[in-house]
Structures are given as C-alpha cells and as structure tokens.
From TrEMBL:
It is an enzyme of class 2 (transferase). HAMAP family: DXP_synth. Its EC number is 2.2.1.7. Keywords: Isoprene biosynthesis, Magnesium, Metal-binding, Thiamine biosynthesis, Thiamine pyrophosphate, Transferase. GO terms for molecular function: 1-deoxy-D-xylulose-5-phosphate synthase activity; metal ion binding. InterPro entries: Dxylulose-5-P_synthase, THDP-binding, Transketo_C/PFOR_II, Transketolase-like_Pyr-bd, Transketolase_BS, Transketolase_C, Transketolase_CS. Its cofactor is thiamine diphosphate; Mg(2+). Homodimer. The lineage of its organism: unclassified sequences, metagenomes, ecological metagenomes. Pathway: Metabolic intermediate biosynthesis; 1-deoxy-D-xylulose 5-phosphate biosynthesis; 1-deoxy-D-xylulose 5-phosphate from D-glyceraldehyde 3-phosphate and pyruvate: step 1/1. PANTHER family: 1-D-DEOXYXYLULOSE 5-PHOSPHATE SYNTHASE-RELATED, 1-DEOXY-D-XYLULOSE-5-PHOSPHATE SYNTHASE, CHLOROPLASTIC. This is 1-deoxy-D-xylulose-5-phosphate synthase. Belongs to the transketolase family. DXPS subfamily.
Amino acid sequence: MKTLLESISQPQEIQNLNLQELTQLAKECRQRIIEVTSQRGGHLASSLGTVEITVALLKNFDFRFDRIVWDVGHQAYPYKILTDRNEKFDTLGKAGGIKKFLSRDESNFDHFGAGHASTSISAALGMAVGRDIQQKNHRVIAVIGDGAMTGGLAFEALNHNGSLDKNMLVIYNDNGISIDPNVGAISKLLTRFASSRFYNSFREETLEFAEKAPFSERLGLRTTLQKLHDSAKSFFSPPSMLFEQLGWRYFGTVDGHNLPELLDLIDRVKELDGPIVVHAITQKGKGYAFAEEDAHKYHGVSPFEPEDGKFIKKKSSGNAISFSQVFGKKLGELMVRDEQVVVLTAAMMSGTGILELQPKFPDRVLDVGIAEGHAVTCSAGIATTGNKPFVAIYSTFLQRALDHIIHDVAIQKLPVRFMLDRAGFVGADGPTHHGLYDLTYLRMIPNMTIMVPRNGAELCSMMELAYNHESGPLAIRYPRGNTANLDERNSPPLEFGKAQILRKGKDVALFAVGLMVDAAEQVADLLEKNGYSTAVINARFVKPLDEDVIVQFCGEIQLLVSLEENTIHGGFGSGILETLSNKGICVPTLQIGAPDRFIAQGTPDEQLTASELSTEQIYSRILERLPVPVKKIRKKRTVQPKKLAS
C-alpha cells in the first residue's frame, strides 16, 4: 500500500490535503530524509528543521506559477522530495542523480540554484522586479536561515527592497535560538493580532485617512500614526525592530514546527502588499533525536545507522588524517608558540579543522559568520597591528571575497595567510563547491605568494614558511581528503620560490602541483616503460615559479607538461607558458588541468575521469604528443627481401 508521500504525483495536490493529512505528510517526508541520508550521506539536520515550513508553503502557494528561492539549498531536501523528486531521492549526490543543492537544470520547481549562502533575498527581489516589469502577479518567496542571515548580501537586499517596496515574502528560518515559553506566548499573541485582517484593514484605513485629511501635512498625522504602529510592534517584539527599520512588515515569532500556526499565519500574510517577513523558530534535526541533541554533528553527514545514529566507519587508511586536521594541528602548535597568531573563519570552524582550538584560544580563534569579505578585511586590520592572521576558508567560498583580497590586503602588502581548504574536486557537493579557480584568481594579484603541498608533511613546512612570511599576502591551497605523510622531517627543505626535482629525464618533463605530483609519478613510470626518459618536478610554488628549473629542462626535452587540479585557464600551466614567452623559449608544451566547463557531482575519481585527468588519460594524452622513442626505432629490424634463385 502506498504511503501518502508516495501517492502525491504533483506538488499542487498538497493544496487539497487537510491538516491531519499534512501532518502525516510531514512525518513521512522527515522519515524519507533520514532513510536516504543514512545511506548516501548529505545535509540532514538543516533539512529536518524545514519540513513543516515546506509543507505550509506548498499548501499556500503553487510553484508552477509562484517563485521560491531557498538559501544554500541544504535546507531544501523536503522541497525536493515534495516537488516530484521523491522516487529519485535515493540517488542523492550520485553522478547523474539528485543534487545536494537547488539547480535550475534539475527541476522546473528549482527557480534559482545556489550552493553558497545569503543569496536568497537578493535573487528573489530580482524576480519581483522582473515580475512587475512584465506586469504579472505571482508571489515571490525567499526562505533564508541556517546562518545565512549573517551574510552581508542578505542585508543589502533587505535594505534595497525597503526602498523599492516590492511585494515579497521572506521566511526567516531561525534555527539558532530556542523559544522562550513566556516571550513566545506574548509574541504569538502579537503575531496573530498583527496578521489579522481587522488590524491590517484598520492600519491601512487610518493611514489612508491621515494621507487625505486636509490638516494631515501640517500636523504630521500620517507620520505620527505610522510611528505608533511601529512602536507598538517594536515594544512587544524586539526582533521586529531591525526589519521594520529597513522597511519590512514583520510577523513573528512563530513556532516553525507547529503546522496549524504556520498554515494560519502564511495564509494571513500572503495577500498583504509590500515586503513581508515571517520569523519562524525551528530546531535543526527536528524529529531525529540524535540530530536534535547534536545538530552540528549531524549537519552534513556520511552514511550512518538510523537506529543508533552511529556513523558507518570507512575502511582504515592506516595513519592517514585529513589535510584539514593537519592544518588544525600545525596551527595549534603555532598558536602555542606565538600569542600573535590569530585565525579567522567564515562559519566553517569544523570544516576547516579549527573547532578544537576555539576553547583553548577563545580570543584568537574567530568565527565571523557567513561573511567571507569581512573575514578578509578584518584579517587585514589585524595584520596592521603586528599580529599574524591566518584565514581558513574553503577555496570555493574565498571567491566571494576577491575584492577584499585585492583592495584591502594585496595593495597594502599586508601579511595575511590564506589557507584554502577543499581545493580541487570535492565529490558529491558538485560544481558550486569545487575549488578549481583559486590558482587563477589568486595568481593574477600582485604581491601574492601561492604554495601547493603534495602531502601533509609539506603542508606543515609551508605553514612554517607562511608564519615567518611578512612581505605580503600568502596562500596555501590543499584538497579535501586524507594524507599519510605527516612528519615535517620527511619533507625536503622548503626554500622560498624553489621547486623540488623528484626525478630527472631528457624526453619529457612533468611539472605538477599538489595531488597531481603523485599522478605525475605514476605517469612517469608508464612513460619510462615505453622508453621515454621522464623528469618529474614538484613545483611547490605557483607564484613565484621556479624559473631556473623551468629553463633547465627546456634544453633538450621533447615535451613540457603541466599538471594541476585547477581550471586550465590562467592557472599553474598558464604561468609556465608566460615564463617561456617572457624568456623567448620555444618548446612543445601540454597543459593538463580541469576543462573549461562545470563538472557535475560524483565521486572524485568520476570527476577526474570526466575531466580527462585520470592517470591513464593523462598518459594517453601525453603519448599523442610524443614521437616514437629513439630506443624503439633502433630495436626495429629491417627485413631484407629474399634473393630469387638463379
């Protein structure tokens, strides 16, 4: 027998369900999220917290016509399930399967895609502007939460529509505070009053009367009445002050898991004109006890056992730990050594490996919220005081702070140390999270130094160099994943701007950075078996490049190859070509890197293959550019024709 969730073929059918059925639908939706994420991994706690909000919105709006923008998308699993993707939801994160974030090419119900936070209000306002230009009348809704309201872009959009006054509804999914029963009771009463048809009719009529009254302007009647309305709400509901001062009508707080209250409030406000905010208090992980107790732990999950919440252990990889953990451990050593070391991150304490440092150094481990630009400029300010700031941000998120890096750090030659986690391919999170552009956007910036470690030991050595570097900004980019080589003593000495020659060769020179160094070693083995003398160079530095080593190998080689897990345009390989051009050197070259297209979700190996970056593919691409090796030509026997008998 089909469940209620399985019986729904189109989201508009939800509008025909009664309260009992809607409650059952929410329960089944929550169970479906737990079922799939326990097997596939994904974003669990945030999506469990938005189930009732999603059901209430689908009950009140028809998103074949109305428009909705979800912030980030990791809180939108219920929306995906209830908008015709339930059957395929168990393909979450797989190549060709359901994506972890909203995507316009996945469904017509995904009106705006996003993997980065704080974009929803801005994008929704753009939709409202476009709607009014086209003289249409559909509704536009933005759902923002899970920390996204800490991003500056959200406030810029709130401020903008405070002046534009476009009809638009924002659902503020506030899962960062608990509901105080006493304040909640007063707030609930006020919200019901403020959203009532009587109050809103009275409000509009009194303001309209004040507008038309002949003595209104002289006495300032309209302004006085407006202030009375606003003051009453602000007195009873302090959170409303921010929104009301920016020009938005505020309704809140409401229990985001009380479906009858949500349905009632959204039904009341959906026909109101102007910018509207509904402030819903929710609990991350709602409905799954383990996630309720530790929403942080169950935010982004790997496969786990639903019965006891225990994560399924991956096969042991010896003493390997993640690059993020290596960074956190080494940074901790530097912070113990020097009280001037400070680290900033943008809402990624755990992801960047510094969560355990915060209790030890509460004044020097700073989480600025989802505000990458602020993190960079604040670090610039810290650098002017003589302290040593490290900025730990995912490569994909640092893109959001490019102007701050150039304007506030690089121009002033401030020694800010950028630690770029998740560089290269990141697997199931897909194109919104790949760190494939940092070598390009950082390499173009004057005064910038860029390093790429091949393993954990080299990362530690580079951090030591960064700690002592005072002549300008410096960036170290490293991948998601584990590394086994951890002892700095096992890493050859690191000299500023100098590459490491791993093996010499006369036919092919493979210049590589990061994880591609190991790939270069494997490719070199294959080439050697085919008779090609192959050099392998671990560049270590992308800026400045070791020009002496580049020139050294250009004398007699048949092919110079660059390998990087970065876009092919403007990165490490482009830097080598620029060096050759500047020195007037002509030598056959081959750039190998990520292609000029967005690479879909999948496993990292699948993404490497899709980009023609697997070891076998790299080997084949190089072979296509090489002549037959001399040794093989010499081994060929010339068959002499037999003489005919006389």
